[in-house]
Amino acid sequence: MAERQDPAETSAGAAKRGANQALTALVSNMQTAAEGARRSARAGSETMSSGLQSAAQQTDKMTRGFAEATGVYGKAMQAASRRMQALTACSQAITDGLPRAQQASVHWFSRTVQTNARFVQDLLRCRTLSDVAQVQSRFVDETITGLVESSTELLRSTEEFVSEAVEQIEEAEESSVTAADVMTPDVHLVSPDDTVQKAARIMGDEDTGALPVGEEDKLVGMVTDRDIAVRVAATGADARDVKVRDVMTPEITTVYEDEDIHRVAEIMAAEQVRRIPVMDHDDNLVGIISLGDIAIEESPKAGQQALLGVSQEGGRHVQNLSEAAAGQKPRRKSPQRRKAARR
Predict the structure, then answer these.
(1) Can you tell me whether residue 335 is helix, strand or coil?
(2) Residue ranges per domain, the chain?
(3) Are 289 and 179 in contact (CB under 8 A)?
(4) What does the CA dihedral 196, 271, 306, 75 come to, rounded to 10 degrees?
(5) What is the 3-state secondary structure (H, E, C) of 11-35?
(6) Beta-strand relationship, 255-256 and 275-279
(7) Three-state DSSP class for residue 211
(8) Which residue from 334, 335, 331, 333 is spatially nearest to 320, judged by alpha carbons?
(9) β-bridge partners, 218
(10) CA 176 to CA 169: how far, in whole Å?
(11) Of these four, 52, 170, 188, 272, which has the most CB atoms within 10 Å of its CB?
(12) Tell me: the pLDDT tens digits for 316-332?
């Protein structure tokens, strides 16, 4: 016969199983809740991170926008200041020239009065119709002659102060032009360890004939398309193997962004260079100026001045092909002379 189970034991076993099931369900619910909390926290963190990144991007965009707007307003104010200086110079020239024009007008009026008075006196002395005719003829001749001479004097005086006004306007326009007004900003830098092939490709992409060479936040030289043509192509070297430092022009002359454009032209003429880097007063590269920038954009006179100097024989970028063929470095001016020119 089957052994009869104690009802108490049966009840205890059922309670134990129920407790285990409840505990298992509780643990499962806690794990589910914990996983949900982790997911929520991760989603919240990702949302917050995305929001912060978006806010940072918007802030950066607004900062750049303000900086660009400030630059635009600054250039507009500089241009307006130059125009006002030109107008002031024009007004001053006209003010200085008006007395000469007034003097010419007074002289003409005085001469006319004298001619009329003499005509009346001569007419009263006439005895015959022939005498009257001669007096009238002389009066007409003197009147016309006086008008011609006085008009010529008036025109000459007017021409003088108008020419002076125009000249002062031109001088006022050019005297306030700085390197920053004509330079090409956002210049691409290459490293001395870059290959000439890379430098040439950048020149093609940027549509430029020269690139500044920088190392450790310092400007160390300039490489031009002529450097590449003369020192690489002419010697048959492989542009993929030649480094920029092997062909660049070291110890280059620079100008500051606030230097007068005529001073920049003087330096370019003295150094006989067609392009010159522009630095701020922390010695950071901010742009580059070419002869075309000076001659076309703002100051034709300064451009002519620089062009005359650069065109002289022995310019810095006029290299002897025999030197290149022999693998020699081009002759360079001493650093002392360059520093003196910078000052």
Answers:
(1) helix
(2) 18-176, 179-342
(3) yes
(4) 70
(5) HHHHHHHHHHHHHHHHHHHHHHHHH
(6) parallel
(7) strand
(8) 331
(9) 215
(10) 11
(11) 272
(12) 444 333 333 344 433 33
Where does residue 192 rank: exposed (0-12), middle (13-18), buried (19+ CB within 10 A)?
A: middle
Residues 6+ apart with CB under 8 A from 179: 255, 256, 257, 258, 259, 261, 264, 278, 287, 289
Does residue 289 contact residue 256 with C-beta atoms inside 8 Å? no
Average pLDDT over residues 247-267: 88
Query: For the sheet containing 210-215, what is the strand order?
Result: 210-215, 218-224, 249-250
Sequence-distant (≥ 6) Cβ neighbours of residue 230 within 8 angstroms:
319, 321, 324
CA distance 206 to 82: 32
pTM: 0.45
Angle between helices 300-310 and 261-271 (to 10 degrees): 10
Beta strands in 123-190 (DSSP E): 184-185
**Angle 129-175/261-271 helices, nearest 10 degrees?**
70
Sheet with 255-256: list strands edge to edge. Answer: 184-185, 285-290, 275-279, 255-256
Q: What is the mean pLDDT of the chain?
A: 75
Q: Which residue has the tokens 């919240």?
A: 44
pLDDT at 35 exceeding the cut of 70 = yes
Which contiguous run of DSSP H or E holds residue 297? none
Contacts of 136 (CB under 8 A, 6+ apart): 119, 123
Please state, as a whole number, how many other Cβ atoms lie within 10 Å of the Cβ of residue 221.
21
One-letter amino acid for residue 338 of the chain: R
Q: Could you tell me the CATH superfamily of domain 179-342?
A: CBS-domain (3.10.580.10)
Q: What distance in Å separates the CA atoms of residue 339 and residue 343, rounded to the nearest whole number? A: 6
The pLDDT tens digits of the residues spanning 64-116 come to 777 667 766 666 676 677 667 666 766 666 677 677 777 777 877 888 888 88
Chain centroid to Cα 247, Å, comes to 28
